[in-house]
Amino acid sequence: MTDYGDLSALLVNCSIKADSAGSHTQRLIDRAAGIMRDEGVAVDTLYALDHRIAFGMEEDLGDTFGFTDEWPSIQDKIMAADILVLGSPIWLGVMSSVAALVIERMYAYSGHTNDKGQYLYYGKTAGCIVTGNEDGVKAVSRDVLYAMQHIGYTIPPQADCGWIGEIGPGASYGDPGEDGARPVGYESEFTNKNTTFMVWNLLHLARMLKDAGGIPAVGNTRAHWREVTNAADQTIEPVG
Amino acid sequence: MTDYGDLSALLVNCSIKADSAGSHTQRLIDRAAGIMRDEGVAVDTLYALDHRIAFGMEEDLGDTFGFTDEWPSIQDKIMAADILVLGSPIWLGVMSSVAALVIERMYAYSGHTNDKGQYLYYGKTAGCIVTGNEDGVKAVSRDVLYAMQHIGYTIPPQADCGWIGEIGPGASYGDPGEDGARPVGYESEFTNKNTTFMVWNLLHLARMLKDAGGIPAVGNTRAHWREVTNAADQTIEPVG
Amino acid sequence: MTDYGDLSALLVNCSIKADSAGSHTQRLIDRAAGIMRDEGVAVDTLYALDHRIAFGMEEDLGDTFGFTDEWPSIQDKIMAADILVLGSPIWLGVMSSVAALVIERMYAYSGHTNDKGQYLYYGKTAGCIVTGNEDGVKAVSRDVLYAMQHIGYTIPPQADCGWIGEIGPGASYGDPGEDGARPVGYESEFTNKNTTFMVWNLLHLARMLKDAGGIPAVGNTRAHWREVTNAADQTIEPVG
Amino acid sequence: MTDYGDLSALLVNCSIKADSAGSHTQRLIDRAAGIMRDEGVAVDTLYALDHRIAFGMEEDLGDTFGFTDEWPSIQDKIMAADILVLGSPIWLGVMSSVAALVIERMYAYSGHTNDKGQYLYYGKTAGCIVTGNEDGVKAVSRDVLYAMQHIGYTIPPQADCGWIGEIGPGASYGDPGEDGARPVGYESEFTNKNTTFMVWNLLHLARMLKDAGGIPAVGNTRAHWREVTNAADQTIEPVG
């Protein structure tokens, strides 16, 4: 049996609801977090709107907006975690404003490098959880996972999962079932399977990356990429 | 020095030009392929439109469309490669029809499993190369990389690269420079750096995955995911 | 009662199935076409894969690919129609390769101008129909409608409609219902309402545009935009 | 000469910068606003982050987040305007969190109907302005314009415009030019032309819609769509 006891994970809920109790996305986040906890991972979950997060492509906005920007402490948690999972609802087919805000603030740190000289998020893995009652799981995951790999995360296979109902308004994930039925979506074989796959693949890649001491610092550092085999040194004929 | 001599890579150009000689995207593909070759990887490149590829969510369309579907031999090459890179031009801000076609045909095989019971593309890594003269590198990469991770590929950090000029019509990547200047885009520090990062990260992850014998087959097979810690077995309170 | 008898519409099915009989998207296309016919519009439907369409950003590829490019006759139908509706299935969350191909070929003509000097598709309206059994109606519509407005079409309110089932594999639109139930999706209030709204809004805007003789040719022609109030002539302070 | 003196427009800047003075997007917004003003339109511009806007799919969040939600007064301005233009920067290839927030709050009102029984935003036109220094004008416009048409706006032809430089970091729109050159992007024929086209097409459609008293309320109201020719009443054979 592989031991995951030294791994840590952070799952961030980017719901736009002020009260986390009403978040449907949280139910699927909890499902994913539960697997990780059962496997011994140190799991932390965070509800973004429980914090005052300022807007801006800055690391710390301080009191710019009349409140104390709480992002820096969230960033600390993100940096401490081997695995990051962003959860987002779907509104008009795209990720929530809160998810966009979280990604912007993470991006503001992307100029920093780790002790190997790589971008800060190298050596970590990321996944995405999406719920809604209409349409857009793939569209949201696409935007979230793209952003994560762009700033340095490794994306394992099938790193997203979610639930939506038949097109149109209706019940959301985790709403009480009608006539004593199980809560909406809880029995979805597709959602449960994909959530399981996502979590295990995050664990597998995180294990692999941690054991390897991260990704080798060859060809992927701003300071030294020209010193190894590189794209600039290739001789390529022009068109025509 | 790490040896990459046992790795293989396939770079597929999804240009919509009938004649590959005029493909700008090919120039950046060649740049990425060159790095891999210099590092000893067995590299193959393929120009999709040199082949007759049928439409359909099928493995082999045979003579359905009045010509012999050549996809199955392309699929063989894809399955033989540890690393897959799709190159696409940008048209109206999205990937080319040929790129969409290639992805559809790969998807048609996604029901198959490897000898561990995982989806077919597990244990491989994928990246994306995009050129255009206007706008859309990230949009195209997003769609391509999402599809690749969805069917089983691992996406390393910064797995996309590309070139576009200032907004509006103008020269494309690899067009001869004006007044004796170097071909368009060839001196782009940003493009050369990102291409280098992409290739090395593909190599690093491919090395890691090959040495590990792929991704462990725990929690990610259709047949056995319910037998390990999984999402269905979590006890989650409904909303409200 | 408004008379729509002088309006014409073309609905193009961009399914990737060789045999149109199996197209689920066609069922929803037929529903939209039916409304238009009932209102006296001259309606034509076209199944793209019944034609041999070449790849390329060209108006007529001739025999480049070893068959006669049939696009030019399709383009004639598009130009003859006041209303264009593109129908697409969803594969991996995006529009089909055939839809991308159709859009590319339309785009190849966008350099032409109408007799007012505007881009060719000015004065026409466009909509989008999407079906799948999983997820992505909005993502597909977004790409299709964006492309249409970009090349000159006017997009009325709520110009897209579609059907998908609950997340995961399952029955598709128009599949026979179980136990004698109505075909899948046919009773969807949401889909029927949105399809109705789309069609009527296409009719309303097409009526308005036709009665007005199209969009006035002021400020939107390549030849004369600098002669009217324009963006280049504004005096704007730089940043900082 | 057509008179636009009775038309009103609102241009909303969704920059994530606390200080509007540094917004590059504002420069292009001002260019578009200038054309409208020159044509007699009553133009208002609004910098979203000058206001405290709460998160949530609600019309008025009151003091939920410890500050007074200022959205309702912004909504009043949106409802008073015949033309709405959203301006957004690009971050990681997508629209800003502030743009997503603005769209969410507008969406929260979409259940309301106008005095004809249509969704609230019917009869109005919308456009989109995007700037960045890298890539993503089309991707951002696609998401913004899709949302606008989905909630009821009419999208005229070529309703988006923007500016980006050659791929990679660099100067942004409106930055002072080097060596006494004009500010960055101000001379872009492409950007100036597209901005002009966008504004004039917004004017043309707004004029047309206002003169017609909006879009006829036939086939597009929740209360009465089943009483006219509609999708539910079509007889469509099932598949197979």
Structure in words:
Four copies of one chain form a homotetramer. Chain A has helices at residues 24-38, 71-80, 97-107, 137-151, 189-211, and strands at residues 8-13, 42-47, 83-91, 94-95, 125-131, 160-163. With 240 residues, chain A is of the alpha/beta class. Helices cover 31% and strands 14% of the residues of chain A. In chain A, helix 1 (24-38) crosses helix 5 (189-211) and helix 3 (97-107) packs parallel to helix 4 (137-151). Chain A has one domain (8-227): Rossmann fold (3-Layer(aba) Sandwich). The model of chain A has no long low-confidence stretch (mean pLDDT 97). In chain A, strands 1, 2, 3, 4, 5 and 6 form a six-stranded mixed β-sheet that branches. Chains A and B meet through helix 1, helix 4 and helix 5 of A and helix 1, helix 4 and helix 5 of B.
Helix and strand composition category of chain A: alpha/beta
Tally of separate domains of chain A: 1
Give the H and E element order of chain A. Answer: EHEHEEHEHEH
Reported CATH architecture of chain A: 3-Layer(aba) Sandwich
- Give the CA-based shape of chain A: globular
How is this structure best summarized?
4 copies of one chain form a homotetramer. Chain A is of the alpha/beta class and 240 residues long. Chain A has 5 helices and 6 strands, in the order βαβαββαβαβα.
